[in-house]
Amino acid sequence: MIATRMRTEDMLPICAKLDSIGFWSLEAWGGATFDACVRFLKEDPWERLAKLRKALPNSRIQMLLRGQNLLGYRHYSDDVVRAFVQKSADNGVDVFRIFDAMNDMRNIRVSVEAVKKVGKHAEGAISYTTSPVHDIPHFVGLAKEMESMGCDTIAIKDMAGLLTPKDTSELVKALRAAVSLPIHLHSHATSGLSAMSFLKGVEAGATMLDTCNSAFGEGASHSSTESIVAALQGTEYDTGLNLAALQEITAYFREIRKKYWQFESDFTGVDTRVLVNQVPGGMISNLSNQLKEQGALDKMDAVLAEIPRVREDLGYPPLVTPTSQIVGTQVVLNILTGTRYKSITTEVKNYLMGHYGKAPGKVNDQVKSLAVGNAEVITCRPADLLEDEMSKLRIECENLAKNEEDVLTYAMFPDLAQTFLQERNAGTLKAEPLLPKEAAAPSAARYAPNEFKVTLHGETFHIKLTGSGHPGEEQRPFYVSVDGVSEEVVVETLSEIEVSGGKSGGKKKVAASANSGSRPRPTHEGCVTTAMPGTIVDVKVKAGDPVNAGDGVLVIEAMKMENEIQAPKSGIVLSVHVKKGDSVTPDETLIEIQ
Fold first, then answer.
1. SS3 content of the chain, % helix, strand, coil (to 5)
2. DSSP secondary structure letters along 65-111
3. What separation in angstroms does the CA of 345 have from each of 139, 304, 557?
4. I need a surface site. Which of 167, 188, 220, 348 has the fewest CB within 10 A?
5. How confident is the model over 290-304, as pLDDT tens digits?
6. Residue 489 bridge partners (DSSP)
């Protein structure tokens, strides 16, 4: 609800009360929170875990683990998986919820074995979705595999809020009949159905429910804890939790949430569209931002209609990280280029090659041929192709890492962690600012407009400046609202106006510098462009290099996914206008081929 931005300092004061409630577990780590700690909050996620462990002595701490992907977006070698589980357990994790986006059980086996080896609770999670191949027998088969691996509980992970009361009842009953493990229900309130589904699930035999304190509950979050506790009071399913004590916690978090007003989003309420397109709220937000950046927001309906088609082409993967990004990025490319699969992302190619695991259903042969030709698809567990990485990782960050936890942070996000560890070691870590609420209101002291409209590519946007970083910073963050959606823009000063003289009759001296980062517009076939805005992560050629049509010349990251951009023609690289880390848009020439 606040983009995973809550700081540890705002968690610790309420931990004693949370610890006394008697929850089965408290989910306090893993998932996207690790990334957010390092990227935005400038906190060591391992230190957060240790502090929470100390503050919650009577509670199980639970984390979300993406199987062989751990907390990143690629598969890691088995020795990294084992080391990560070991250190997570050492620092305080008791329950590991382990899932794979493809529901490929081969991708969770090593994680489960590692959790059992360190004596902790392994919860296998089924990524719930609906499609012609995702029926109750399919899910029952997954649960049986998890039980045979040694999982202690089974979670139904309904990340998009697709479960209906009827489907929940039938699925829980089938799982209870097939396995002897307790069933844990996880659903989001996005569609408005989760509370009803929870009740039917409990009646069918589910024994654990994921809820969220009402200060942060409902909508894209989970059903409210207090509401579910009240609904079950006086029944045979009474939780025994103290409603008055829960409401004390609610009062605390209601006040804390106000501190994070700048991260609130319009995409966290009930959205019943998910029942048709199966797109989680976070994915819709991503797609909306991508389209807005290109003046193509009017194509949102076309994008939503294309998602089920691409998902079918790829064999019906559940839409959860990272497959939601894989599908979403390809869909946007299909719509913006005007031709389906004219440009195919690197991740889609890797997916079709089997690098993420086995597709749940049959993939479209024509799409596969367009993407990877006759290349042989791997049929083994993807991580079987990876060599051990820990020794190499230790060497790469030996001048930065102070312990094994630092090495594992580097393993998850190398570029991000390198900056974080350098700043930590230098004592210069600085979290993004929490703006005072009054920054949301127009200031009488401003001499420039703080609210205006911008028309770009025929699309008009309502912009409102809500705050900014300190003047004089080389890269100054500005916090704006774009059509009601909060955004952060980083502005690097490239020209200045210097005013000198007295209060009256003073001279104005203008000292301007050209925008050295400006790039030429594409004018001919040899101009290499991107189909969507993003960040350059690799430049594969330099001026003077010969290239053939179809050769990879750039790698761009958009929507957390990397996409290789190919040369449009054969020739010689005349000029390169980008470097690693640059932000780029579709109307620019990135490389010119002669």
1. 40, 20, 40
2. E-GGGTTSSS---HHHHHHHHHHHHHTT--EEEE--TT--GGGTHHH
3. 30, 19, 10
4. 167
5. 677 667 778 888 998
6. 478
